[in-house]
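WARN no homologs supplied; continuing
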Amino acid sequence: MSVEWKPVGHKGWASVAIDKPNFCLRANSHSSHLYTNFNDAATIAATLLHSDWNDKPLYLALSGGLDSECVANALTRASVPFTPVILKIDGVNKLETWYAEYWCHTNNVKPLVLEYTVDDFADKCKQFAKQSIHLRNFFQTAVLILYETIEQLGGYCINAAGDINLDSDTKKFYCQSLDFAGDLLDYHHPSSFFMYTPELALSYISQFDETLDEQYNKLQFYNVSPRPKIDYVFPLHFGQHLVKDTVYSIAGLAKIDPLSYCRFWYGGKQDVINLIKGNP
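OK structure emitted
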């Protein structure tokens, strides 16, 4: 069976695919310029995204983490009209959503707030079982809730994902299938913001200091206020028994490790740069 590649980002500069059990990524075109100021690259990416997706209202999945606040600032600098969407789940993610609400308060923006119980979330895990099995990843339920909701509202959802992650143990860079859930599952929304243009991806990785923690790196070039890394996704899926039982049941039937992340490994920093620039 042939691998079905899905276009990603502005003008389909990259493509992604699931070649079970692997997640695959390739570049179709390459960066034409290195922006040494990351915010310049992010503002240009926001402008291009708006140009590509301006026929419906734009919504931003604003979690309250560093990534989503960085995207909110980029959209604001580019004068892109958007509505922040904040997903609250029974207080499980209240520490992170505080930052999202604070950003809205300081920027005088009214967000769309979605309130879910843990039971509601478990039901959504069941609803999106087929999609999770295809992605071989069980951690994208929250963004699929937002995609579904915003489609019903007649808009497009911007997902503040796609950042190039550093594995602290191997010192290798990777991304996950969940970063490209919308592309892989044929939802009609923009690709994850941090891979929207090759220039943005190149700006990110070029100034990444491998001797520093990933969060410290982001604080250096995102220009957002510091906050602790708040991982509510794993505790939600495996600390809440109803959700955990649902995930294990779905994964067991599909014979997939529920802790699978389905990653694509770029390699070292120079390997990422070579992929984006098209170097041999």
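The chain has a mean pLDDT of 95.
OK
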